[in-house]
Write a structure and sequence with these properties.
alpha+beta, five-stranded antiparallel beta sheet, globular
Length: about 425
């Protein structure tokens, strides 16, 4: 069982308001009862009604249950109970009946999900896949012509500054079942007039999307890993059945860094894992309705043992974890800017559409020139920081001293997501 810190518990909060409310209820006086048997923690939170809210946590995942009417997950009662547990203020006790019933239901659901499902009709699947490919192919042909027209008229043309120019054609890509291309077109539109060098970035993005349209038109002639990368960029989903025959990679995985953002009324979480034995990086992508928790729950700084199944590709990064066993926390991997850039160049040669690449910089410090902030490694090599980096928060945490930084590199700027200081992981 992993040792949970308050920082790691609060990282599970669906938003800042929930985290604040969880802190407010993390007081034994606000609970009618509290208990834990090392596998589950539970409590009865005092509310405005006659009956307290029954709250329980399966500490192995963690998973939450609460009888309150909140639609947020975990709710403030789950967070408050977990904070109390992380602070060793929950005493050992015998599991009550309502917690045992929840435990049995979870076991039953797990057993049902493990049962083999009825095999799908392969002929029907092929027909659906062929129909989708036809729609994608037609949409990407239109996209190719649209990109040529956009570049031909010049990036200084007034229409490029109008959101409608991008939104209307992005909708065409949604109709063509190419959500990945839709997203990248909208991002191109947001780059217009966004600051120094914006035209270069727009042209670079246009070239990458055009490369996708050309690759898809020659899909049958490409090696299988490249075909998988092209489909991933387009946004064709990978089914669980497609991953079942792949060789899993077992290791002790550190939850190194996470980034969460909102898109089309959903929350998206990108989690970077590092395998200590294989020295491999893996990316787990999770999607949830706004205000809901991510599945699987992964908390920065924790370590677990698991098989990971990597999605096919030229430089496999995205992976799906299987059953996990929590392990003691560990120090982050040591790394330098030069080592990361060497790996990044190899990755781009295998997959030119990589948008985010994992970074671990050991003994990093912050620096500043007249134009921007940057991070410097132990060898004196620097990377420019993303403009959204909370630099002053970082300086307050580290005191200006060297610390380990983990995050993402997009080919232009480094976005720190985690800082390891005084042997504690902190999300940025």
């Amino acid at each position: 069982m992993a040792d949970w810190t308050p920082d790691q518990v609060l990282a599970l909060a669906p938003d800042a308001a929930s985290a604040q409310a969880g802190r407010g209820i993390a007081n034994p006086s606000k609970w009618a009862s509290l208990g834990s048997d090392g596998v589950f923690a539970w409590g009865e939170a005092k509310g405005s009604g006659a009956n307290p809210y029954q709250t329980a946590i399966d500490l192995s995942e963690p998973a939450f249950k609460c009888s309150c009417p909140s639609r947020k997950f975990p709710c403030k009662h789950g967070l408050g109970l977990f904070l109390l547990f992380s602070q060793d203020t929950v005493s050992p006790a015998t599991r009550p009946i309502w917690v045992e019933e929840w435990s049995q239901k979870r076991v039953a659901r797990s057993e049902n999900s493990a049962k083999p499902k009825e095999p799908s009709d392969p002929v029907a699947q092929e027909k659906r896949a062929a129909k989708r490919d036809d729609r994608i192919a037609e949409g990407l042909r239109d996209c190719s012509m649209w990109l040529k027209d956009t570049v031909r008229q010049g990036l200084s043309h007034a229409t490029l500054a109008q959101p409608k120019h991008w939104e209307s054609f992005a909708a065409r890509m949604a109709d063509a079942q190419a959500p990945g291309i839709r997203r990248r077109l909208l991002e191109m539109g947001r780059l217009v007039n966004s600051g120094s060098g914006w035209a270069e970035r727009v042209l670079e993005e246009a070239a990458e999307i055009y490369l996708v349209t050309e690759a898809f038109s020659r899909l049958d002639a490409l090696p299988e890993p490249v075909r998988a990368d092209v489909r991933a960029v387009i946004g064709v989903p990978v089914r669980k059945e497609d991953l079942q025959g792949l060789q899993p990679v077992n290791d002790f995985w550190l939850v190194a860094a996470q980034r969460i953002w909102e898109e089309d009324r959903i929350s998206i979480q990108r989690t970077w894992l590092y395998g200590f034995g294989t020295k491999k990086w893996a990316m787990v992508l999770s999607i949830a309705a706004q205000g809901q928790g991510f599945d699987p729950p992964l908390v920065t700084g924790t370590v677990f043992n698991s098989d990971l199944v990597f999605h096919p590709g030229g430089w496999p990064l995205r992976a799906a974890p299987q059953e996990r066993i929590d392990s003691p926390s560990a120090l982050p991997p040591e790394g330098t800017v030069t080592q990361m850039l060497d790996q990044f160049s190899l990755a781009l040669a295998a997959n030119p559409w990589i948008e985010a690449f994992p970074v671990s910089i050991h003994e990093a410090t912050l620096g500043q020139d007249e134009q921007r902030w940057f991070v410097v490694d132990s060898e004196g090599v620097s990377l420019p920081l993303d403009s959204s980096t909370p630099v002053w928060d970082l300086l307050a945490i580290t005191g200006g001293n060297p610390a380990s930084l983990l995050g993402e590199w997009d080919g232009r700027v480094f976005r720190p997501l985690t800082v390891m200081c005084d042997r504690r992981y902190r999300r940025i």
